[in-house]
# Entry
Amino acid sequence: MDEVSLPAEAEALTGEQIAALLVGAAVWAPSLHNTQPWLFGTDGRELSLYADRGRQLMAADPVGRQMLISCGAALFTARLALRSAGRIPQTQILPDPADPLLVARLSWPRRAAPSDYELRLFDQVLRRRTHRGGFDPLPLAPELLEVLRAGAKRDGAQLRVITDEAAAATLAATVQTAEQALRLDRRRVQEMAAWVSPPGSPRRDGLPATAYPARPVHTFPDFPGRDFARGRGWGLPPASTDAAARAAGVVCLLTTAADRPADWVNAGQALQRILLTSTACGVAAALHSQPLELSWLRESIRIQLGGGSYPQLLLRLGTVIQTAASVRRPPASVLFQHRSVTGLSVDRLAD
Ligand SMILES: Cc1cc2nc3c(=O)[nH]c(=O)nc-3n(C[C@H](O)[C@H](O)[C@H](O)COP(=O)(O)O)c2cc1C
# Structure
């Protein structure tokens, strides 16, 4: 990238304004149950991203794998926001072995104008939404799938597109088995319920009633969604009266070669690149982590369908008219001056 001069408004940004821009975008990353498990610190020269252990789901995610995937998605978004402001991100992932909650340090020592691709991706940050349901029965362009695969690789992950029908049916069966098991696990049910708010709630995290269907949606093969509504009548009414199962879409597994915290962060970065690229092409994604929360099912997927690599998330991609809406906490509530966030992380580590 050549160093060039930027439009006056981007040139003139102070370090604090850049940090605010990055966090304003990063909070729109996807996260497990919209827990938004992140905090940011800045000294005006760099941005530190911390995992917020107070928002980790101890029943669903006891080792914090999904928490770090969520933080990785926020990190990718912050890096993209930096590019949109004409700065070149310099990123250190998990830079301090003594502070495992410090997910990344991001600085912007040099400048270069953003490419059209980067600007187009950045435009999707607020538009992207998780889809929960079926898709139109249309194939996706093979070129898009190739771009998604190549993008995941750049972030240190693999996107495995499951083209074999029997393999897709096997994956669907793992989601069905997991969903049944999770619904019988009182601790997990209570934990998830704490992140689902009633219609009209002013809450800015968790699942609002505008984010999921009121009644189970069936796909073929059947990939059941999480039961956020729990028969309370909360959630979106069906988009049509036709109860026939819709297409499951293109089934994909996001995997990494190893299974360390840095791989989880990379998987999150790859996830957000995949989701934003898909959104830019009019393609929506449904996410399923249910079978990956049960170690025996995760291991079976790893061996049978992951080619031995570690499954981090299951995705279904397709075209559909989306109606879901989500919420986020205000960026100012998660961005701190450097010193105070370091104190926070020490407090939480001492818990
Ligand atoms: C690691 C991870 C796991 C997720 N698992 C699921 C899932 O199993 N089911 C689901 O409906 N959404 C899942 N999601 C999507 C989140 O619920 C979603 O990102 C969050 O509610 C915010 O909504 P948005 O993506 O529309 O902005 C997951 C997201 C992440 C990052």
About this structure: Residues 30-34, 66, 69-70, 73, 129-130, 132, 207, 211, 225-226, 287-290, 313, 326 surround flavin mononucleotide (CB under 6 Å). The first helix runs from residue 8 to 11. The radius of gyration is 20 Å. The mean pLDDT is 93.
